[in-house]
Amino acid sequence: MRTTITLDDHLLQRLKKRAAESGTSVSGLIERAVRLLLQSSAPQRRDRFDLVTFGEGGRFTTLNIDKTASLLEVDDVERFGRQR
């Protein structure tokens, strides 16, 4: 099955280097890492936390979190500014 993931540029470069050194693909390396993670013993327990919100009702964010492209665009605009 194919899927899309977003990785930090530095992390991707390290993955590419490791994949080349081990004679496999980046996809193969990621798949192996995920399998190892899922095979590990008991899942990590996370402490409970309370989400603090203000105001009454309404949406937590104005962004459409179902549209990855729009989230990436907002991130790019925040990071690099809007082109004229």
Automatic annotation (TrEMBL):
One of its GO terms (biological process) is regulation of DNA-templated transcription. Residues 1-38 form the Ribbon-helix-helix protein CopG domain. Signal peptide: none annotated. InterPro entries: CopG, Ribbon_hlx_hlx. This is CopG family transcriptional regulator. It comes from Candidatus Acidiferrum panamense.
